[in-house]
Write a structure and sequence with these properties.
alpha/beta, 12 helices, 20% strand
Length: 391
């Protein structure tokens, strides 16, 4: 048995019932992108049943250009997050069976955002000065402070609406390994504050020509209980990770990993692992939607990214065989037509494709952890503490 779990990072389908609590009432990633570009053409997603999903969401909005086909290839539904938060770690951990209540600590927008004792300890242990110390977009703060960081070979530290301590450095003057070591120090210092992620954000270049590299690394808070990855691994079931999955789960419960930096590299890795897999779970994150287009408020680029993934799926689906399962979902929203540059609290799509099997309406699932419970049932594991299998 082989199960492929693909997270389309930030591809939400409409506001969650509690969106107003997060300042996100009115956000709807896929429907608003479709309107912004005059309609989407995603024939593979459409055949799978993407257009059948809006009616099961709390606030049904059509995805312009995507029809509800009468006999979709995949079972379809939507999932509503229960954990507190709208960040990558929270979404992926809930998909893997966990529940975060209370959620991770959020730093204030500042400046300053970070406590004085945290900053002092970090500067002392790394031997470099920290600048920034506020909530900001990653590209914006590099434009603002990149010249100073390059001149002084110092760190740029910033946060966002998520539980993050992000650390940028110009790796033309600060070695990449020094940045990674600094993030390990920050991870340890941030643990008492219950911070979800420390993120290495390397960039290079000169003023006016700075650009971020694909050497990003995420350093996650340790989960409080075993995830579905650890349970499978302990039961002798291989677990393959693609993209930033290994970082999100602190490298726990993973048999083999390919830490890719973009969607197309991740898609190639999925194909390569699939060619060698005889059984097990492959868990992949396709990051470009969120990283390149959601945070940068680029609906056109987001739409083009969806088209590329649709075309890739058209070639990947025929390689699946009887007994395989493909689960496609997301971890949160990031509506590029919405205000700000942060994630949005949304329900996410759920498509479950099993070659040769008929599809059905999976409805609105309360809790992303239904995915983990379903995978546990597939592989004959004992029930997880929460969730209902959709098989």
């Amino acid at each position: 048995m082989r199960t492929f779990l693909i997270v389309l990072d930030s591809v939400g389908v409409g506001r969650a019932p509690d969106a107003a609590d997060y300042g996100d009432e009115g956000a709807a990633t896929l429907p608003h992108i479709a309107e912004a570009v005059g309609g989407l053409r995603l024939p593979t997603f459409e055949k799978l049943g993407l257009g059948c999903i809006p009616p099961v969401t709390p606030d049904p909005l059509p995805i312009r250009g995507i029809s509800a086909v009468p006999d979709p290839l995949a079972s379809f539904g939507a999932m509503q997050e229960v954990s507190q938060g709208k960040d990558t770690i929270t979404g992926h951990w809930e998909i893997a069976g966990l529940l975060l209540q209370p959620g991770f600590h959020l730093f204030p927008p500042g400046p300053p955002s970070f406590p004085d004792d945290l900053v002092a300890a970090f500067e002392r242990e790394t031997g470099r000065k920290l600048i920034g110390n506020k909530a900001a977009s990653g590209t914006g703060i590099i434009e603002e402070l990149g010249a100073q960081a390059t001149r002084d070979a110092c760190w740029i530290a910033y946060t966002s609406a998520d539980s993050v301590f992000q650390l940028a450095a110009n790796i033309d003057v600060v070695p990449l390994e020094d940045l990674y070591r600094a993030c390990e120090i920050a991870r340890r210092l941030c643990d008492p504050h219950r911070v979800g992620r420390v993120i290495a954000r390397p960039f290079r270049g000169t003023p006016g020509r700075f650009h971020r590299t694909e050497d990003r690394r995420d350093y996650a808070f340790m989960p409080d209980e075993p995830t579905i990855l650890e349970r499978l691994h302990a039961g002798g079931v291989p677990v393959y990770a693609v993209g930033k999955i290994e970082d999100i789960f602190a490298h726990r419960g993973i048999t083999k990993s390919d830490h890719t930096g973009n969607n197309q590299a991740s898609q190639r890795a999925v194909e390569q692992f699939a060619a060698e897999m005889t059984r097990g779970l492959l868990f992949a994150n396709f990051i470009d939607f969120d990283m390149l287009h959601g945070h940068r408020r680029d609906p056109t680029g987001y739409a083009e990214c969806l088209v590329q993934t649709d075309q890739w799926l058209a070639g990947f689906l025929p390689t699946l065989r009887p007994g395989d399962t493909l689960i496609i979902t997301a971890d949160h929203g990031n509506d590029p037509t919405f205000r700000g540059s942060d994630h949005t609290r949304e329900v996410v799509p759920l498509l479950v494709y099993q070659p040769g099997r008929s599809s059905r309406n999976l409805g609105l699932r309360i809790g992303y952890y239904d995915v983990a419970q379903s995978i546990a049932a597939q592989f004959g594991l004992s029930s997880l503490p929460r969730g209902w299998s959709f098989f």
